[in-house]
Amino acid sequence: MQRVTVGDFEVTVLSDGTYELDGGAFFGVVPKVLWEKRIQADARNMLTVGTNCLLVRDGKLTVLVEAGIGSKLNEKSRSIHKNQVLLMKSFEQAEKLTS
């Protein structure tokens, strides 16, 4: 877990886990020969990528920027993307570090 102070703001990076996404969908019009130099797709052309969220605090307010994927996908989508649901666990860990 990473935490940094930027001016009056404390920014904590929280994770909602990882998910799998088709490399072509992830990189769009960027040719595979360019993006595969940085990350290798599996045999199905899937990439495992992270779902990171930002928790921003200024002493008075707390704001969550991006809430991850969560448990809203249907069963078929979960079987394809293999997403995790870890945001609340990450938030609890961040709270323990603050206490």
Describe this structure in words.
With 99 residues, the protein is α+β, with helices and mostly antiparallel strands. Helix content is 28%, strand content 35%. It contains 4 helices and 4 strands. The protein has a 4-stranded antiparallel beta sheet. The chain is globular. The chain starts with a strand and ends with a helix.
Summarize the structure.
The chain is α+β, with helices and mostly antiparallel strands.
Count the DSSP helices.
Answer: 4
> Which spans have pLDDT < 50 for at least 5 consecutive residues?
none
* Strand element count: 4
Tell the overall outline: globular
Strand order of the largest sheet: 1-2-3-4
As a whole number of angstroms, the C-alpha radius of gyration is 16 Å
What portion of residues belong to β-strands? 35-45%
Largest sheet: 4 strands, antiparallel
**Fraction of residues in helices?**
25-40%
Reading the helices and strands in chain order gives: EEHHEEHH
Average predicted confidence as pLDDT = 91
Structural class: alpha+beta
